[in-house]
From TrEMBL:
<dbReference type="InterPro" id="IPR017927">
    <property type="entry name" value="FAD-bd_FR_type"/>
</dbReference>
<dbReference type="GO" id="GO:0051537">
    <property type="term" value="F:2 iron, 2 sulfur cluster binding"/>
</dbReference>
<dbReference type="InterPro" id="IPR050415">
    <property type="entry name" value="MRET"/>
</dbReference>
<dbReference type="InterPro" id="IPR039261">
    <property type="entry name" value="FNR_nucleotide-bd"/>
</dbReference>
<dbReference type="InterPro" id="IPR001433">
    <property type="entry name" value="OxRdtase_FAD/NAD-bd"/>
</dbReference>
<dbReference type="InterPro" id="IPR017938">
    <property type="entry name" value="Riboflavin_synthase-like_b-brl"/>
</dbReference>
<dbReference type="Pfam" id="PF00111">
    <property type="entry name" value="Fer2"/>
</dbReference>
<dbReference type="Pfam" id="PF00175">
    <property type="entry name" value="NAD_binding_1"/>
</dbReference>
<protein>
    <submittedName>
        <fullName>Oxidoreductase</fullName>
    </submittedName>
</protein>
<dbReference type="GO" id="GO:0016491">
    <property type="term" value="F:oxidoreductase activity"/>
</dbReference>
<dbReference type="InterPro" id="IPR036010">
    <property type="entry name" value="2Fe-2S_ferredoxin-like_sf"/>
</dbReference>
<dbReference type="InterPro" id="IPR001041">
    <property type="entry name" value="2Fe-2S_ferredoxin-type"/>
</dbReference>
<feature type="domain" description="2Fe-2S ferredoxin-type">
    <location>
        <begin position="240"/>
        <end position="325"/>
    </location>
</feature>
<feature type="domain" description="FAD-binding FR-type">
    <location>
        <begin position="1"/>
        <end position="109"/>
    </location>
</feature>
<dbReference type="InterPro" id="IPR012675">
    <property type="entry name" value="Beta-grasp_dom_sf"/>
</dbReference>
<dbReference type="InterPro" id="IPR006058">
    <property type="entry name" value="2Fe2S_fd_BS"/>
</dbReference>
Length: 325
């Protein structure tokens, strides 16, 4: 990925918790092209890992993607921020950011013969990659609709721009309104399993779409999602041991850390990328013990087999795991 130092040219307040940042290259040069669903990795001072922010646009002009004059990010201030969103919300126009990208782990599918309507589903700040997809679909003349949900209508960012882009294809949903509240099951019941689904938002929403689509017979290749949330402790998590069979090293994994994190602390160099259980880079073979699968990469059959684990996010149901590492 290309590394760049970009200048913040403008900041807009979208809601009390969400702001847009416009990033430009020195001397007004065009920025590298990006595709809908792409994100930038932003280096945050004091944090070891870069933070990922999706590129958002509401323009159906091709140059928006091919020769952008600015990148636009949408950033929500998180109550339990580890520092990333607080840093981003403290920036002012004229500040610079070190970024890498664009990178796309959430691409749109190619045009298909007799293509049916693509359904875009967003929750909260998950609207950012979804809006870029809507812009690209409109530019290409492809059929689509969008469902955008939040706790209340006043917490839905970019409403005016979305309305101008989408018109009647936009459906707004508010949790505090019984009439418009999004019911994933009802939505899926009204669709066809031939339709592509794209969802980005809170983990609960993504899980509901994935499970609901699976129960209704959707092919996995037509259900697309992106989750920027990394591993977090779950109520009831307890420590367990991991033995690395190739060295005999034994590690204790506390409830608030992942196998990858403890391995790094112990001087190991595990392979990983997303830290969200999506990409499969960190897959390890389980020689003994029972994994507690929390990833989105392994198939149901692979999870049931218990011989593979995503060490960036999954844990153990047994007191001990032996891994072929």
């Amino acid at each position: 990925m290309q590394e760049m130092e970009l200048t913040i040219s403008e900041i807009r307040t979208e809601t009390p918790l969400i702001r847009s940042l416009y990033l430009r290259a020195p001397e007004g040069k065009s920025l590298p092209p990006f595709s809908p669903g792409a994100h930038l990795q932003v280096k945050v001072p004091g944090l070891a890992d870069a933070r990922c922010y999706s590129l958002v646009t509401f323009s159906a002009e091709t140059d928006t993607f091919d020769a952008p004059q600015a990148y636009r990010l949408g950033v929500r201030l998180e109550a339990e921020s580890s520092g990333g969103s607080r840093f981003m919300h403290a920036l002012t126009a004229g500040d610079t950011l070190k970024v890498s990208g664009p990178k796309n782990d959430f691409p749109l599918h190619a045009t298909e013969a007799g293509e049916s309507e693509t359904v875009l589903i967003a929750g909260g700040i998950g609207i950012t990659p979804i809006a870029a997809m809507a812009s690209a679909l409109k530019a290409a003349g492809r059929p689509w609709s969008m469902h955008y949900s939040g706790r209340s209508l006043d917490q839905l960012a970019f409403r005016d721009e979305l309305a101008a882009l989408a018109g009647p294809a936009l459906h707004l949903h508010a949790d505090d309104d019984a009439v418009t509240r999004l019911d994933i099951g009802t939505l899926l019941d009204a669709l066809s399993t031939s339709q592509h689904l794209y969802v980005c938002g809170p983990k609960g929403m993504i899980d509901a779409v994935i499970e609901g689509a699976k129960a209704r017979g959707w092919p996995a290749c037509k259900v697309h999602f992106e989750l920027f949330t990394t591993a977090a402790p779950v109520a009831g998590d307890t420590p367990f041991e991991v033995e690395l069979s190739q060295s005999g090293q034994i590690l204790t994994i506390p409830a608030d850390k992942t196998i990858v994190e403890v391995m790094e602390e112990a001087g190991c160099d595990p392979m990983y990328d997303c830290k969200r259980g999506e990409c499969g880079v960190c897959t390890a073979t389980v020689l003994e013990g029972e994994p507690d699968h929390r990833d989105y990469f392994l198939s149901d059959a692979e999870k049931a087999g218990g011989k593979l684990i995503q060490i960036c996010i999954s844990r153990a149901k047994s007191p001990r795991l032996v891994l072929d590492l």
